[in-house]
Amino acid sequence: MLVAPALGRTTWVANQGYEGPIIFKANPGDTSCPGQFYLWGDRYTNGGGYQAACHDNIEAPTWNAKPLTMTNAGVVRPRHGTVIPLTLREWNDIRKIPNSDVTTTTKVAVEPYASGAQTTTATATVKAADGFETGGQVRFSIGSWSKTAYLKDGAATVTLPTGLPAGAQTLKAEYLGVDYLKASEGTRRSRCPPARPPSRSRRRPRRRRLSAGTHSS
Fold first, then answer.
1. Which residue has the higher pLDDT, 198 or 57?
2. pTM of the predicted model as reported, rounded to 2 decimal places
3. H or E segment and range at residue 88
């Protein structure tokens, strides 16, 4: 958050009033303020409308004013707006430019079984080729067992249950894809422990009690 007294008046016209400032970083390839920050402010006096400035130091006490030409539904000086980020796909949609589906990669990791443990966890990490976030579901499977989990921050985790076939097994993680993200899969070899033999309880034989004053011959 930028805190500076009368920044609008030190940057634009000194005797005017400004409100609703917003600061944002210039996009890569910007030619008006390359590698700098933009400052927009709404001049509410004398029909000024939006004013623009830029600077490479976000804490500068005075910014470099820039001419700004903007129209909104025929209004020459629009007011009370904001700046919102757009992804390239969203910008292409606005311009009616088709977007290609994005490929993904899925990597699997299995936590080693602790000594004597019958269960452990497996995690699938899904990354998109365009570097943006991923979402959706991943299906894990070993043999006839399978379980589906949702991605959170690009990763999905499940607990491998007891009763899986003992020995070296291949765990498959299938990212099912969503919207424009293509499906992908990964595998990991893991050694599952043998099942524990069922425990047997040994019951002591009950001793027959003899009543007082009696005896057996």
1. 57
2. 0.58
3. helix 88-94
